[in-house]
Design brief:
The chain is an alpha+beta fold and 454 residues long. It has helices at residues 2-5, 10-62, 149-197, 215-264, 268-299, 311-320, 343-360, 418-428; strands at 77-82, 87-90, 109-115, 126-135, 138-147, 307-310, 329-333, 338-341, 365-371, 377-384, 432-436, 444-450.
Length: 454
């Protein structure tokens, strides 16, 4: 029930919270004000009654007490009673009445209290001071009282005023809070409405940014930045799908053509060449599918592998397997670096860098492995003496399906995914892969990977 009755909107909750706090504060302040006012009036009345009682007690002790006692200013009645309860003197309004209290004090002293309900004192409260003193006739008690009609009237007036003002103030706070909160949350509602209208086909739309430069404006900027990233990811995904479809279509078309030729010309002399070409295209399709699958895995949000891997051993093995290639690989490993990742991913990174270098090298490829000066990262460099990479294209070469020139065409065996996969692997493992300057010409690719903790 409490959950159903709880306000669901921020505006309603803010209004309820502010109204409750103000109502409690005004209620506490009202009680404190009434208490302070009543206390001051009661103390003032008590002071007047106490002075009258002490003066009358002095007269009784001196034996100069008259039977009729006219009350002084601030006192409404006086009565003097002996130890046996006989009234020795009284003010005119108490003439002929018995003792005000049946109790008889047994020792001298002063008592103070508030009385109500005695016919002699009317309908209002009275502050009564009782002074007991010793006289020649024994103990005598003096009762002096003053009416609290002013305090009661002030309490009634203040209570009525507070009963009217406090609800008005609480209502005013509620209305003002409701309007101010609505005005403050209006940009949030505009942002919500705009985001609700954005679909996967409308990622170009952006939410309005209010000119207030407050938290809501920063929220709108953050939402727009998120939409920018989503739009970029969507464009990248669509481009990737289009490029992948184009790359897959070429070998499939060639493979189909070869099969159709073999079917149309059943000459056994041609089958060897056709089967060889079909096998090459099939291998190419298989490699391309493997690359696409690896890219899909790299794009997921799953945690990257975190096993210790000896990068030096992987580099030596990759170079050793290429000894008979057209362009040999020279190895210069100065540190047995151990990084965190997986053998599969790191082997693919090294293999892709070497494949790219051998594809474009003239006579030499060099692989070096060292530890940086800070001792925190392994630095793997692959250099070749080929045409190199222009400075303006050193970032574009890491884009998927990117080929800079004819030397990087499909005829040379490249699909445009090798360097993209290598950079994605380095990035997922907490490192980086960049194309940097080569002093003597050629391409120089540098991968930096954080070392595994000892």
């Amino acid at each position: 029930m409490a959950r159903r009755l709880r306000p669901r909107s921020v505006r309603a909750r803010a209004t309820l919270g502010a109204t409750t706090v103000v109502a409690l504060a005004l209620g506490a302040a009202s009680f404190a004000l009434l208490g302070a006012l009543d206390g001051n009036l009661v103390r003032s009345a008590q002071g007047e009654a106490e002075r009258q009682a002490l003066a009358t007690a002095g007269l009784a002790a001196a034996g100069r007490l008259d039977a009729v006692l006219p009350p002084a200013r601030g006192a409404d009645f006086l009565q003097v009673v002996d130890a046996k309860g006989r009234v020795l003197a009284a003010s005119p309004n108490l003439a002929g009445l018995p003792a005000l209290s049946p109790e008889r004090p047994r020792r001298p002293g002063t008592l103070r209290g508030t009385w109500q309900g005695n016919p002699a004192r009317g309908e209002h409260r009275h502050r009564v001071v009782t002074v007991t003193t010793v006289t020649g006739q024994g103990l005598v008690t003096v009762y002096a009282g003053t009416s609290l009609r002013e305090a009661d009237a002030a309490d009634e007036i203040i209570t009525a005023a507070l009963a009217l003002v406090v609800p008005l103030l609480v209502l005013t706070v509620a209305v003002v809070t409701w309007r101010v909160t609505g005005w403050a949350l209006r940009p949030v509602e505009a942002i919500r409405a705009e985001v609700a209208e954005i679909s996967d086909r409308d990622l170009h739309r952006r939410v309005p940014v209010p000119p207030s430069q407050d938290e809501i404006a920063r929220l709108a900027v953050t939402v727009n930045a998120t939409l920018d990233r989503l739009e970029a990811a969507g464009i990248r995904q669509r481009q990737f799908i289009a490029d992948a479809s184009h790359e897959l279509r070429s070998p499939i078309t060639v493979l189909r053509t070869q099969l159709e030729v073999a079917q149309a010309h059943p000459d056994p002399a041609l089958w060897g060449e056709l089967v060889s070409g079909a096998l090459e295209d099939t291998v190419r399709l298989q490699d391309l599918a493997a690359d696409l699958l690896l890219l899909a895995r790299l794009d997921t949000a799953e945690p990257a592998p975190d096993a210790p891997v000896a990068l030096a051993d992987l580099a030596r093995e990759a170079a050793r397997s290429r000894r008979g290639d057209r362009v040999p690989v020279d190895v210069d490993i100065t540190a047995d670096a151990t990084v965190r990742g997986s053998t599969l991913w790191l082997s693919r990174l090294v293999t892709n860098l070497l494949d790219n270098a051998q594809r474009h090298a003239d006579r030499r490829v060099r692989l070096t492995l060292r530890v940086d000066g800070a001792g925190s990262a392994a630095v793997l460099e692959v250099c070749d003496d080929g045409p190199g990479i222009p400075a303006a294209d050193r970032e574009r070469v890491f884009e998927r399906f990117t080929r800079l020139d004819d030397a990087r065409s499909r005829d040379q065996g490249g699909s445009g995914l090798g360097l993209a996969i290598a950079r994605d692997i380095a990035t997922r493992l907490g490192g980086s892969l960049t194309a940097e300057d080569q002093p003597h010409g050629g391409a120089r690719l540098v991968a930096r990977l954080p070392l595994a903790a000892a």
